Amino acid sequence: TVSAREAAKFAALAGEWWDPAGPFAPLHAMNPVRCRFLRSALCVAFGRDTAQPRPLAGLRLLDIGCGGGLLAESLARMGAHVTGIDVNEGGIATAQAHAALDPDLAGCLHYRTASAEQLVAAGECFDAVVASEVIEHVASVPAFCAALAALTRPGGGVALSTLNRTPRSYLAAVLVAEHVLRWVPPGTHEWERFVTPQELAMQMEESGGGGGGAPLRLRLLAGMEYDPLSGRWDLGRDTAVNYIAFFDKPAA
Predict the structure, then answer these.
(1) What's the rounded Cα separation, in Å, for the pair 68 and 13?
(2) Residue 235: enclosing H or E segment and its boundaries?
(3) What DSSP character marks residue 53?
(4) Handedness of CA 17, 21, 22, 25 (dihedral sign)
(5) Which residues span the domain enclosing 171?
(6) Residue 230 CB partners (closer than 8 Å, separation 6+)
(7) Which tens digits make up the pLDDT trace of 192-244?
(8) Cβ atoms within 10 Å, residue 85
(9) Cα atoms found within 13 Å of the Cα of residue 151, Cβ hemisphere only
(10) What DSSP string describes 195-247?
(11) 30: CATH
């Protein structure tokens, strides 16, 4: 499911992942709200207490398209054993170098240059799989969803965040973010590749047919809403631009 053209866009920016004012500034700003959703969804799915300082302790998580490790590090700090994969060697090198600065991450955070399909072929499986801001860049959405299902153990879950394909998302993510405010380089997003929540749910329902066993079922859906006045993101009901979803895989 790797798109060479899409991968090349991020390879050119590999050294700038941890610059909060650089091309990945929107992801830095979005990360706290992504983590809040994931913390809650994973704790509900696995019977954990969100009030604990390391509520995800013992869970094996896979972060697909981890880039420089913004989200993977946050999940590891919640106690999870996290494997981050990306097809861009530069991004993985950046992630490894940044993680090495924090000795608390040693042993619980590992990075590999690999695709989802390579892990499927190796027979690897995880308690939960995360693919944040990735699915809009893959070559085949159905094949990618099948890989997500195959990498998730029975009783586990999958979380995705992405952009909806609506007129508002074209205005916000393409025209404003790329061409007016220059938050991200022009050409980062292709509106036609955005996936609606309905399309995503349908593909997940069909994901079991690709060798992943039971299909993935939608359990939680929330909008990720940006407030331009405060510059902050929050969770809400408006999924017209950004949204995040959690799917579970029935136990065998």
Answers:
(1) 10
(2) strand 232-236
(3) S
(4) positive
(5) 4-249
(6) none
(7) 999 999 999 999 999 875 555 678 999 999 999 999 888 899 999 999 999 99
(8) 21
(9) 27
(10) --HHHHHHHHHTGGGGTTSSPPEEEEEEEEEEETTTTEEEEES--SSEEEEEE
(11) 3.40.50.150
